[in-house]
Amino acid sequence: MLTPRKRCVALTFLASPLLACLLLAGLASATPSITLSKKSGPPTSKILVSGIGFEPNVGVDILFDTKDKALVITDGKGEFHGAGIYAPRSARPGEHWVTALERNNDKGAQQPFLVFTDWPQVGFDPSKSGFNPYENVLDNSTVRSLNLVWSHTAQSSYGFSAVAVADGVVYVAYSGGTSSGLYAFEAGTGAFLWTYPNAVSSPAVKDGVVYVNDSTNLNALDGRTGKLLWKYRISTTGITDAPPTLADGRVFIGAGNGTLYALNATTGKLLWSYSSDAGQIFAAPAVANGIVYNCPGDQAADSSVCYALDEKSGGLLWSYFADGFISGSPAVTDGVVLLDAQYTGVHALDAITGTLIWNYMEDPWQASPAVANGIVYSGGTNEMLALDVYTGAIVWRSPTDNILRCQPAVANGVVYLTSGSGTFYALSASTGDLLSLYSMGSAGSSCPTVANGEVYASGFGGGSDAQLFAFRSERAVH
Q1: Is 301 exposed, middle or buried (0-12, 13-18, 19+ CB in 10 A)?
Q2: Residues in contact with 369: Cβ distance below 8 Å, sequence separation at least 6, in sequence order
Q3: Are 211 and 178 in contact (CB under 8 A)?
Q4: Pairing of strands 67-73, 465-473
Q5: Distance of alpha carbon 170 from alpha carbon 192, whole angstroms
Q6: Which of 135, 148, 84, 107 is nearest to 24 (CA)?
Q7: CA–CA separation, 229 vs 178, rounded Å?
């Protein structure tokens, strides 16, 4: 027979779990309540729990779902404050419950906590690692049964941007054609929500605000409605379709004239700018440990100059001449900056000094590298390579059907990539073995995104044929 406590815990997933617990314990008139320091976050999030209305000087168990995470003792007022627990690494995306129960009589209170594994900007995070460390639905097993769950077709002459996912919404920009603009879709169903015209870059999302480049302005939009909050005019000289990067309350964006801007993310106020004559800025800068890394380049001259700037002041810290054109973002990890340069391969630099650590040169590299767990993932002509981040030694190589022009995505032991032929691949991150394959039937594709147990990728066949694809595993149980 279940005790009141065990019966209470067993019912934590009912529509009204706390009410069920209180009724079973005969405490429907109880008055305890708890507050959480945050209402949502990824797995491993720290949550501070505070409670009032409990019995004085008694033990209170703090549970995440059915798992006991902490024991606190109330004070003489029947209160406790700032009890720290963590959302489990295994907590799947969706609503969970944080519960506080007295040990002597099961008097208690609950609050919901929403778990997510969002992908908020190109490259996943400011360091542009391409690595989602929170994904826990798709893995080497479940990814084998990926199915297309929805898609969207646009009249676009250039194709799709990379996808950002936040707060249950998928954001993507279509470039060119009658569909040009930023679009928002419901993540689970693909239902259309809203559009904002003329956007051209991959979007970035933070605290309910979406940032996107329209080739003339950086726009900040309400993520729920698409309403313009503010805009900042950037240079229209040259190609200006670089995505923004969000970090530490700032938004960083490059322009076609080689100028990098740092703006206040809330107000759009200019904080500083840095201009270089090395060429145009084609990609989002990387930000890590108070340093901004950027690589403007001259495609005609097949050269780029990467530089490091102080994040707060914009002061130059170092620069590095890459004998090869760089079209993608740097990726930063554990004191190493990684670059992919056309014809001169992967460059690994010391993040503090800019000194070259190693250079792997074999194929005409095209995309931003991804990095996770000490391995660099980078693609060239007809293959994906995994290299040791500290030595450049080959870990594995896997063939593809075409050149890889876009950053791979890494999550939970799987690396995802798209080829210039529009083929979507899922490979084992440790061995390179093929796990899943899907032909998007097009001549080009955008960077894949992995969030909340779903994978997003796009294919573009030229003319007006562009499609966004959303995949989900039938074997992944939420």
Answers
A1: exposed
A2: 130, 328, 331, 338, 339, 340, 346, 376, 377, 378, 407
A3: no
A4: unpaired
A5: 10
A6: 107
A7: 24
Q: How far apart are CA 431 and CA 383, in angstroms?
A: 14
The domains of the chain are located at 4-115, 142-473
Tokens 């005969």 belong to residue:
26
Among the four given CATH numbers 3.40.190.10, 2.130.10.10, 2.30.30.100, 3.10.150.10, the one describing domain 142-473: 2.130.10.10
CATH fold of 4-115 reads Immunoglobulin-like (2.60.40)
Identify residue 258 by its one-letter amino acid code.
G
CB atoms within 10 A of CB 262: 24
How far is CA 215 from its chain centroid? Answer: 23
Phi-psi region of 181 (alpha: psi -120 to 50; beta: other; left: phi over 0): left
Are the C-beta atoms of residues 60 and 72 closer than 8 Å to each other? yes
CA atoms of 212 and 200, how far apart (whole Å): 7
What is the pTM for the complete model shown?
0.91
- DSSP letter at 145 equals G
- Degrees (nearest 5) of the Cα angle 93, 410, 184? 55
3-state helix, strand, coil split of the chain in percent (to 5) is 5, 50, 45
User: 234, 253 in Cβ contact below 8 A?
Assistant: yes
Please name every residue paired with 348 in a beta bridge, in sequence order, or none if there are none: 338, 358
Give SS3 for 163.
Answer: coil
Return the H-helix or E-strand segment holding 410: strand 409-411
Rounded CA gap, 406 and 202, in Å?
Answer: 13
Task: Output the tens digit of pLDDT for each of the chain's 478 residues.
Answer: 334 344 444 444 444 454 445 434 444 445 899 999 999 999 999 999 999 999 999 999 999 999 999 999 999 999 999 999 999 999 999 999 999 999 988 799 999 999 999 999 999 999 999 999 999 999 999 999 999 999 888 766 566 788 999 999 999 998 776 678 899 999 999 999 999 998 889 999 999 999 999 989 999 999 999 999 999 999 766 667 899 999 999 999 999 889 999 999 999 999 999 999 888 898 999 999 999 999 998 888 888 999 999 999 999 999 999 888 888 899 999 999 999 988 888 999 999 999 999 999 876 666 789 999 999 999 877 889 999 999 999 999 999 888 887 899 999 999 999 888 888 999 999 999 999 998 887 656 678 999 999 999 887 655 556 788 899 997 665 4
d(CA 293, CA 335): 12
